[in-house]
Specification:
With 365 residues, this protein is α+β, with helices and mostly antiparallel strands. The protein is 17% helix and 27% strand. The protein contains 4 helices and 15 strands. The termini are far apart.
Length: 365
């Protein structure tokens, strides 16, 4: 057994090899007042195992060593939380979302806030300010369609058939303010057009999404101006993909020449005609037609929705509404036309994004 060479009453420590004479009468813990130890170096009766309590300064030294580390860790965690919160707040204030993508030169628009994502009300609140009513006047009369604002200075995307042949174009914002617009470029083959407001600035813009990510069954919201009812919101699902829809390249195919925009107020049916599956709907499409792959939706579309937005639940534009099936009751002799029956079609937004530079250059006109 190893011999204990410590002086009587001494206590070893890792920090300091100096002995501490607990039994010394001159030490603050010595004398009869310190009842926990015998003065002859025998075991301390007042502690478990017979060992003296550790010196008072030793735990203090260890605690002091740990406090700066704990404090630094707490500061680092707090900084991380504040930093992340700040980034989120800035993103919300800017109305931007990392998922919102647009074509070159397109301003990313306001998307749905985190608290309202996945709700029709949230989508409507976020996107409605970027959807406009378009009134196109021609010698044949006046028709109504819709459009989507994509830049703050007033670039608006719509269907070519909404503004084809128009001599004057008036655009009404969701606020009720009215602008005159000029045609920048058209692409009749894709039934797309780009117009721009005169003297506009600081407008709310829509974010262009990615239509390649759309799946059958996805919830969608449609916003437009059916029958001139600006800012009308409907909802449904994507019911099919890649439908081959054939439409007239201009207004010459529609009955009476005034069906442009699905809301003609002159003579004619007021329905934009299209072909699907070898059959014609809503009138004669005429001789000049074009075919495109469309998203099919059961969100209610009515005359005047043409050129408006089909939107996903993140508030991103995934399609430009372009055609609807509205069975006419003319066969019954009434001469009137029925409304939406849940078969609407939209041009995928990726088609628009690929065509945007051409529209801006006016090459397709």
């Amino acid at each position: 057994m190893t011999e204990n060479l410590r002086p009587s009453g001494a206590h070893p420590t890792d920090q300091d090899p100096t002995s501490y004479p607990y039994a010394s009468p001159s030490h603050p813990y010595g004398g009869a007042a310190h009842s926990g130890a015998a003065h002859d170096g025998t075991a301390y009766a007042g502690t478990a195992g017979g060992y003296p309590p550790p010196p008072p300064y030793a735990p203090t030294t260890r605690r002091k060593a740990k406090r700066p580390v704990a404090l630094l860790a707490a500061v680092a965690i707090a900084a991380g939380v504040i930093g992340g919160g700040t980034a989120t707040l800035v993103g919300q204030l800017n109305g931007q979302d990392s998922a919102a993508t647009g074509s070159s030169g397109v301003v990313n628009g306001t998307t749905v806030s985190q608290s309202s994502k996945g709700t029709v009300a949230g989508v409507a609140e976020a996107v409605s300010p970027a959807i406009v009513e378009i009134g196109a006047a021609s010698s044949a009369g006046r028709s109504t369609g819709s459009g989507v604002v994509i830049t703050g200075d007033g670039e608006i995307v719509t269907n070519n058939h909404v503004i084809s042949g128009a001599q004057q174009i008036q655009v009404t914002l969701s606020t009720g303010k009215t602008y005159t617009a000029d045609v920048v470029g058209t692409d009749p083959d894709k039934d797309l057009a780009l117009i721009k407001l005169r003297g506009a600035s600081g407008l709310k813009t829509a974010a262009l999404g990615d239509s390649s990510q759309v799946k059958v069954g996805d919830q969608v919201v449609a916003i437009g101006s059916p029958e001139g009812l600006t800012g009308t919101v409907t909802s449904g699902i994507v019911s099919a993909l890649d439908r081959d829809v054939t439409v007239a390249k201009d207004d010459s195919g529609s009955s009476g020449g005034s069906g442009r925009g699905q809301g003609g107020q002159g003579g004619g049916s007021g329905q934009w005609p299209f072909e699907f599956g070898g059959q014609q709907f809503n009138g004669d499409t005429g001789e000049e037609t074009t075919t495109y792959k469309a998203l099919q939706t059961d969100a209610s579309l009515n005359p005047g929705n043409s050129g408006g937005a089909l939107i996903n639940m993140d508030g991103e534009i995934i399609g430009i509404n372009s055609a609807m099936y509205a069975p006419s009751s003319a066969a019954a002799g009434s001469g009137s036309s029925a409304g939406s029956v849940g078969l609407g079609f939209a041009i995928p937004v990726n088609t628009l994004k690929a065509d945007l530079d051409t529209l801006r250059a006016g090459d397709g006109s």
